Every structure is written in C-alpha cells, then in structure tokens.
Amino acid sequence: MNCVESMFSVREKPWHYEMTKDVTKIIQTAPTSADALHYAGLDWTVDPKPIYDAFGNEIKNFKANTRSSDNSVLGIVTDRYKIVQNAEAFDFTDNLIGGDVRYETAGSLKNGKTIWLLAKMGEKDILGDKFEPYVCFTNSHDGTGAVKVCMTPIRVVCNNTLNFALANAKRCWSTKHMGDISAKMSEAQHTLGLADDYMAALGEDIERLANKPISNDEIKEILDELFPIVEGDSQIKKDRAKTARDSIMVCYFAPDVMKFNGTAYGFLNAVTDFVGHAKPNRNTADYEANNWGRIMNGHAIVDAVYDKLKIVA
Predict the structure, then answer these.
(1) 118 near 105, Cβ under 8 Å?
(2) Are 100 and 122 in contact (CB under 8 A)?
C-alpha cells in the first residue's frame, strides 16, 4: 500500500517521487502556502481528543491527535505537546516569496503523520553546472518531531541530490512559525540567509573537490571500505557489494560526470548518482518515507564518501 496519501507538483512530477505518480497532482502554480496546502490535500486540521481505557475511563495527561478530514489518529501525545497546524507551520514561508523563491511541491507521508513542502530558490551556477536549491520544510503530528528546514541542492543535468553536511554551513535547522507578521518576516529572512550561506559554502567545497585529482587506487580503497567483500559472507551479501561497486563505477563514467572524471568531485557525483537513482533491494511500504528522510537528513553513504574525500582533498 502506498504510504503517500496526497501530493501536488508544479508543472512536472518531482524526480524524487516518481513512484508516487498515481497520487501526484500536476498544476501550473501555487503562489501561496494556502494554495500549496490545498492542492496537496493538506488543508485539514489536527484536533486533540481524549483517550479512554477499555472500561470507559479517560486516560489523563494524554490525547489522540486526529485529522479533521477523516478522524484518523495521527499519534498519541501528552497534554504538553503543542500542535502546529499545517497552515500554521507553513504560513510564514509566504514571506520567502518576496525573493526569488516559489512553492514547488508538497505532500504527506505515513497517512498524514508527516507533511512536507519544498520551496524552490533561484538557480545557481557552480563550475558551469546549473543547481536548483530547494528549501524543504517538514512537520509531524505524531509527536516525533517539530518543524524542520533543510537545504537540498539538485544538480540539474543529472538530478543528483548534493546535500552534504558541510563543516562551515548549516544544511538543516529548526524554524519558528508562531508570532506576529514582523516576527515571521524576520524568520523568513533568517531562513533565506542560512540557505544562501549553505549554497555559498557548497560552491566552495565543490570547487575544491573538483580541483583535487583522485586515483583509481584511492577510489578502489574507498569502495573496498564501503562495500567490503568478506570471506564467509553469504553469496547474496557478496553479490550486493559487488553490484554496488560496479554500479558506482558505471555512474563514474556517465556522460554528465565525465567532465569531472579523475577528480574527487567526479567520484562524489558518481556516488550521489548511485544512491539517488538506484532501485532498492526491497521495495517496502516505507520506501517513500525513507527516501524523504534521506532527502531531508542526507544519505549515510554519501556523507561517508564526502568525509573520506575531504581527507583525500
């Protein structure tokens, strides 16, 4: 069963949710957060309701967060939990539209327990490549998290997600969403400032890696460490490790990476290509949620390779 229950996208289906094409709505524009939430099917509220035991007694200090559209339970929380409504969480992002930013796509995961919205900033040029920086907002209603913002830059030519954890710029941060309009505008400017800082730092790191040669022996050493083939492992595990190694090398010699072939940046692109577009070993019901988690929080393999290449470089 598909855990993405609703979604919209501006003009075309977002590349990272191709599997959700049956529930994607294609529109021409979503100028405000209210429009974005409407088109994404997120214009419902979260209502706290009392919980009762098997004998009809109310359980004190706990509430069930329920969705107004169908009364489904999104999560059990304590009385201290503060609900952040969908409209409330993303309302302040309208203040981003004053710059070169637009709403691109929004949707829900895990039957509405998590909602997300991507605002696309203006294209950036790094080493002659076009990058599309996305500001990703997410909020949960099951008590597992708060409003969070992450930068997700996309290398346009190959749709690779280059979301590295940089040492000198934040990629993810929490954001305030309450208060008067001046506070919201201030927070929006803060968000744009952090987004610009990340893109500037990313450009510097990319340029540094693109100017650092990497040998085939160094690549082999990294792949051996990431995907070891150990005597005594099952044949399935050995085959998966070999497939991963071979697939990354295929990506390394892809036309859109060849211009950076022989550099640390070229190899890093090959790895991001592999993890971003390879099919999972098992297509589970949680695949889309896990995919979104990697977009927001990064990918362990990419971060590991990036850390090793920083040492190489």
Answers:
(1) yes
(2) yes
Which segments in the chain show pLDDT lower than 70? 1-29, 98-99, 176-181, 278-292, 311-313
pLDDT value at residue 69: 93
Per-residue pLDDT at 94: 76
Q: What HEC string does the chain produce?
A: CCCCCCEEEECCCCHHHHHHHHHEEEECCCCCHHHHHHHCCCCCCEEEEEEECCCCCEEEEEEEEEECCCCCEEEEEECCCCCCCHHHHHHHHHHHHHCCEEEEEEEEEHHHCEEEEEEEECCEEECCEEEEEEEEEEEECCCCCCCEEEEEEEECCCCEECCCCCCCCCCEEECCCCCCHHHHHHHHHHHHHHHHHHHHHHHHHHHHHHCCECCHHHHHHHHHHHCCCCCCCCHHHHHHHHHHHHHHHHHHCCHHHHCCCCEHHHHHHHHHHHHHHCCCCCCCCCHHHHHHHHHHHCCHHHHHHHHHHHHHC
pLDDT value, residue 19:
45
Cα separation, 31 vs 102, in Å, equals 7
Which candidate, 107, 95, 139, places its Cα nearest to that of 36? 107
Q: Identify whether the C-beta of residue 184 lies closer than 8 Å to the C-beta of residue 91.
A: yes
Q: Is 110 left (phi over 0), alpha (psi -120 to 50) or beta?
A: left
At residue 312, the pLDDT reads: 58
Residue 128 main-chain phi, psi, to 5 deg: 80, 0
Contact by Cβ (8 Å): 17, 7: yes
CA torsion through residues 42, 47, 48, 52, sign:
negative
The pLDDT of residue 24 is: 57
Rounded Cα–Cα distance for residues 168 and 145 (Å): 25
Structure tokens at 298: 């990064």
| pLDDT tens-digit readout, 211-249 | 999 999 999 999 999 999 988 889 999 999 999 999 999
